[in-house]
Structures are given as C-alpha cells and as structure tokens.
Amino acid sequence: MAKRKKKNIEDVSVQDKKVIVRVDFNVPLDKETGEITDDKRIRAALPTIEYLVEHGAKVILMSHMGRPKGFDTKLSLKPVANRLSEYLDQEVILAEDVIGEDAKAKADKLEAGQVMILENLRFHGEETKNVPSFARELAGLAEVYVNDAFGTAHRAHASTAGVANYLPAYAGYLIQKEIDVMGQAITDPKQPFVAILGGAKVSDKIGVIRNLLPQVETLIIGGGMAFTFLKAQGYEIGTSLCEEDKLDLAKELLAEAKDQNVNLLLPVDIAAATEFSADADYSIVAADAIPADRMGLDIGPKTIELFSDAVKNAGTVVWNGPMGVFEFEEFAKGTRAIADALANSDAISIVGGGDSAAAVELMGFADQVTHISTGGGASLELLEGKVLPGLDCLMDGGEGRRIFAAGNWKMNAGVPADAEKLLLELLPLVKDADSKIAIGVPFTALAKALEVTAYSNVKIAAQNCHYEDNGAYTGEVSAKMLAEMGVPYVIIGHSERREYFNETDETVNLKAKAALNWGVRPIICCGESLAQREAGETFDWIKGQIVNGLEGIPADKMSFITIAYEPIWAIGTGKTASDEQAQEVCAYIRELVAELYNEQIAAELVIQYGGSVNAGNAAGLFGQSDIDGGLVGGASLKPQDFSVICLA
Q1: Between the CA of residue 574 and those of 64, 405, 500, 616, 633, what are the distances in Å?
Q2: How far apart are CA 404 and CA 194, in angstroms?
Q3: Residue 317 bridge partners (DSSP)
Q4: Exposed/middle/buried for residue 226 (C-beta within 10 Å: 0-12, 13-18, 19+)
Q5: Which domains are present in the chain?
Q6: Distances from the Cα of 140 to the Cαs of 56, 100, 126, 144, 544, in angstroms?
Q7: What digits encode the pLDDT tens for the residues 4-28?
Q8: 204-211: long-range contacts (C-beta < 8 A, 24 or more apart)?
Q9: How far apart are CA 216 and CA 178, in angstroms?
Q10: Any idea which residues carry the catalytic annotation?
Q11: E runs forming strands in 156-260
C-alpha cells in the first residue's frame, strides 16, 4: 500500500466537465424476475455520484455485471439504471452500448448534473484484457476519470486502470475511505496490532501471513486453514480440512512467527462433527486430539475466550476469513463471538471483505466495527502487500512532487533470466519506498520484467519506441506494441539514441505523441554536450530540445510526461553535474514549460536529473527544489545501490 496520498474528487473542478466513473454495480439479480435482490453496492456509490451531480459534472458511470459471453440481455445494467434513478430522483440515462454510437451520442448530449450509465463493460472481452484501444475509447467519452470501485481495484482492466493512461485519475469517496482506513492499518497501525485470518485454505493466505508477520504483535489463525497448522505440529485432526502439500510451508510460517516474536494463536479446542452438515452431531474436543472419524467445523469455547482476549487488548484489528462454517447456525458461534469481540473493543477494527464481511453484516455487527471493506479479493491483496492497479493509477496527492527514480539498463541484462534475477533482488529492497520507481530494460527482457514486477511498486519502461504503429520498419518496436504488452513507460530521445542513431527533436516529438496516443508515459530526455556547455550554449540548446520535443502536445497530456535532463558530458563518464548546475538547468526547464503552457502544469511537472547518479550523490541532487528524481544508468544494474537511490 503506497504511503503517498491520492487525489480525490474534491481536488478537481468538475463543473461542466464530463466525468467517467468506475463503480461496482455487480449486484445480485433474481433469476426469475431479473430484479435486484441486494442494492448495497449501488447505495455505497451514492456519495460520490451525488457530489459530482451537485458540483455540476456530466456524469458517465461504468460497471460490469456477472461474466457474460458477449451481449447478454439478462446481464444488462437496465435494472441498475432504474434503481439508481429512484435514489437520485432523476432519470439515469442508459446507453445501449459501451463505446458505440449510442454511448457517444448520449455522452455528448449530457448536461451539467445529469447522469448516464454505459451498458455492461464485460459485453466486451477487451475490458478484462485491458486492450489499450478499448480503454482509449472509454477515455474519449470524458475529460476526467474517477475510480470508486474498490472491489475491482485489484484487477488491471481497461475501466479500472487502462482509462487512467489517458485521463487525469482521481479517487471517489469509497476508494478514498479504503485508502485511508485500510492503508493506515497496514502502514502505520495503532498498536498492539492483531490480525485474524480464517477461511478454508492456507494457500489463499500465504502472502498475507508473510506480509503481516513483521508488523503484528499477535496473529490469530482459525477456520479450516488452522487444521493444516495443527497437523504440521503433529496433532491428530481427524477428517478435518487439510492441505497436505502445505504442511512444510505451515511449519516454515510457524518458525518465522517464532523468530519474529509474533504471538501466533491457534485453536485450543474445536467443535468436531460427524459430518459436514447443518444438523451434524458434534462435541467439543481438544484441538490436538480430534477423533479420527470427526471433522472440525468451528472453534470451541476456550478458543473463543483466547481469541477474544487478544482482540480486547488490541489497538488495531484486521480480520479476514470466518472462524468456522458460519453458514450453518450451529457452527457460526466462533465467527459470531469474534464479531462481538470486535464490536465491543476500543480497537480500530477492520473487516477485510469476503465471507468475514458477509458474516459481520448477517450477524448484525456491521455498524459496530470501524470499517468493512467493500472488496473481497482487493482487500486480501492489499493485506498481502500487493500494489493494486486501480489505486496505483490514481494521481498522487499530498505536498510537493513525488520523487521518481528510473533505472536505464541500456544494452545489459537483456536475457530474461538475468533480468529476473536483478529484479527479484531489487523488489524486497524497495518495497517500502515512497518514491515512484521504474526500470528501463532491453526489449528482449520486457515480458519477463513485466511478469516479475506485477502488483509491485516497480514499473517497467522500454528504452525506445518507433512513432509508427506498424509497417516496414525492420527491427523497430512501436508504441502500440508496448501498450499492448502493458508497458507503462518509455524512454525517448536519450543522448545515446541521438548520437548513435541520428535521432532528432522532430523524431522525439513524434515518438512522444505516439506513446501518449497509446497510453504509454514518455520520459523525454534532453541535455547538452561539454562543448556546448563550455561555449555558453546550454540554455539555448535545452530550449530547442524542449520546445521542439513538446510541439503540438496538448496541455491535458503534460501530466503523463516526465522530462529527464541529462548533460551528455556526465553520462557514463563518472562526472556529475554539481547539485547547483543540475538545479539551474532543471529550474530553467520548469520556467520554459510555464511559458509554453502555464504555471500549474510547470509546477506539477516531474523533472529528473541523469548523468552518473549513484548511491552517494542521489540525496544531494534529489534535494534540489526542481529535481524530482533521477534517470540512472550503471547504478541501476546494482540492486543494492539502486535501492539507496530509490530511498534517497
């Protein structure tokens, strides 16, 4: 979870602007009548929608429903549009398609304060595949993007992440609350921090356990997954659920908890039944001696007392997964007792979606806990320490510009196995970095690099691209190809490309436009030679590169651009511009952008310095008021050194 705040809907003027909002209206429908049986998700989105309406936005909502294969009238969002119309006390216009003529025509006719909803996003297979052209069509309907669907924030779909490659992206109130409450609990919890994990399988929670162990004082494990841990300790568990292939892993996790002085609590007694049924005969038995013909379906009274005591003394409690088969009334006692303990605790209490959230609501404790997450899989992946695409894509908030450390491996580590080794070494070193991080890898390693860094805070950049989408350009790689691979950044106009391959300001400009057209963020390089600096031509040269490189790029695309100032005389020479020299030129670039666009765009522009940046000089350079990070060469091939730069 990023420590950096995200901008939300209150940070942008929406008056008379078309705002496209990703909501989660995947509500259950009655199979016979097609009527909505539970509109909780619709009601959860109302604060964001109402704010936008009240502030004069032209609101375009988008959501999926179910898993249709092509257009399926049974999964139309018409019932949602009707229900939402009742809540908003105005007609919610339903488009007949998603990116077709009807959607575009209705979006164009929207007036301030009106609301329309696109048809089911998943009528198009391009949605879940995050096809760039589909995301671009969605973005083309509006001027601002808002994500308020936390339940889908863990998926890199066109509507949850792809649209943010083309439009400025903000959080809605629902996502903002998830970031504030769950993010705080994970990054800076009130102590003592207690985590409760239940559910059926250890395999579903491995990442969560490993991510939480260094942070929690007490880790409680209940539900079906507890039996794998009990058997790993040599206990008899009868016919209880057990993942035999995870016994060694359970032993490792128990040892890790001990090494990290974590109080790991397992059940001490169990409600053991003769069969898996609601009315099965059962008895309370010791957790280390479950009869061979019985299976554990819930925790027992001594365990309830043990777990509840831990909750009572906690400062923060995060709970994900029931303690037993709560769907059966007789075996819901453990889950109900934990919910009751949370409700009567002074701790910040967070229920992490899924079955545990359903149980808390079903049992009537929903209004007595601090927060119930609206995302099952999303909350689980957040607890696991993963970076969620639907949150990561939102614009950074907070004071000042965020440091952006980008590595450029150049023509090194292009064998996928070599790239994988370097990245796997780097990832844990920078896991808690507050800076943005990207690594420019050779084309041959792009696919492997994207795979290794998925759901992490390290992004991947290509080192170049061609400005044409396709054609007879042997050996070239287009921006379109990069976009379709899911590459988020591309380095353009590096001095080595200019010197060895005769690239010009004009070709750099064409490449930047091509990258922006396909939702790939360009890092545009500029810099002078030693002869130019000694002749006093630095500023004239830089001005030409910036003015020509940005020619025809509209103001609303500047937030997707990074400029990297790299004095040629400092690249690979061991010579570094002094902090003052680098600051002087970066300040000039910012002033120049203010003249070309405006003061706000210039103030928000990220400007990197590149040229023999290393672990020793990064802090001084990044501390300058107009330097927002670095484009790093050789040092980025040394994970330990590059991690120091990322944390500078």
Answers
A1: 53, 19, 20, 12, 11
A2: 34
A3: 194, 349
A4: buried
A5: 9-179 (3.40.50.1260), 189-383 (3.40.50.1260), 399-646 (3.20.20.70)
A6: 20, 12, 16, 10, 32
A7: 689 999 999 999 999 999 999 999 9
A8: 204/380, 205/320, 205/321, 205/380, 206/249, 206/253, 207/384, 207/385, 207/386, 208/320, 208/380, 208/383, 208/384, 209/253, 210/253, 210/256, 211/383, 211/384, 211/385
A9: 20
A10: 494, 566
A11: 169-171, 193-197, 218-221, 236-237
| DSSP string across 12-51 | S--TT-EEEEE------B-TTT--BS--HHHHHHHHHHHH
Instruction: Output the six-digit token pair for 135.
Output: 């995301």
Rounded to whole angstroms, the Cα distance separating 410 from 444 reads: 12
Tokens of residue 309, six digits = 């005591």
What residues does 298 pair with on adjacent strands? 271
And the tokens for 546?
Answer: 């910036």
Alpha helices in 433-578 (DSSP H): 446-453, 479-485, 495-501, 505-517, 530-534, 538-549
User: What b/e sequence results for 611-632 when a residue is b if at least 16 CB atoms lie within 10 Å of its CB, and e otherwise?
Assistant: bbbbbebbeebbebebbbbbbb
> Looking up tokens 């509840």, which residue turns up?
308
Token output for 326: 């709560």
In the structure, what pLDDT confidence band is assigned to residue 579 with cuts at 50, 70 and 90? very high
Contact yes or no for 205/213 (Cβ under 8 A): no
Q: What is the pLDDT of residues 533-565, one digit of tens each?
A: 999 999 999 999 999 999 999 999 999 999 999
Report the length, in residues, of the chain.
648
CA dihedral 327, 329, 331, 334 (to 10 degrees): 90
Q: pLDDT (tens digit, 9 = 90+) per residue, 83-104?
A: 999 999 999 999 999 999 999 9
Tell me how far apart the 2 most distant CA atoms of the chain are, in Å: 92
Report which secondary-structure segment, H or E, holds 139. helix 132-139
The structure tokens listed for 481 are 């190809």
Q: Cβ(396)–Cβ(6) under 8 Å?
A: yes
State pLDDT tens for residues 121-131: 999 999 999 99
Among left, alpha and beta (phi > 0; psi -120 to 50; other), residue 478 is beta
Q: Which residue reads 């504030």 in tokens?
A: 180
Task: Give the C-alpha distances (Å, rounded to integers) separating 51 from 113, 115, 233.
Answer: 10, 12, 54
Residue 2 near residue 387, CB atoms below 8 Å? yes
Rounded Cα distance between 405 and 438, Å, is 7
Residue 331 carries which DSSP code? G
Roughly what angle, to the nearest 10 degrees, separates helices 333-343 and 301-312?
20
Q: Which helix (H) or strand (E) holds 491?
A: strand 489-492
Q: If you write DSSP's letter for every residue of 363-379 in order, what string do you get?
A: TT-GGGSSEE-S-HHHH
Task: Report the mean per-residue pLDDT for the chain.
Answer: 95
Spatial strand order of the sheet with 18-22 comes to 92-94, 115-117, 58-62, 18-22, 144-147, 169-171
Which strand ranges, in their side-by-side order, compose the sheet holding 282-286?
Answer: 282-286, 269-273, 295-299
Q: Is the pTM of this model over 0.85?
A: yes
Rounded to an integer, what distance in angstroms lies between the CA atom of residue 208 and that of residue 219? 11
pLDDT of residue 192: 94
Check if the beta carbon of residue 282 is closer than 8 Å to that of residue 272: yes
Q: 305 CB contacts (<8 Å, ≥6 apart)?
A: none
Residues facing 29 on adjacent strands:
36
Give the pLDDT of residue 3.
54
Is the confidence at residue 509, as pLDDT, over 60?
Answer: yes
Strand 295-299 relative to strand 269-273: parallel, antiparallel, unpaired? antiparallel
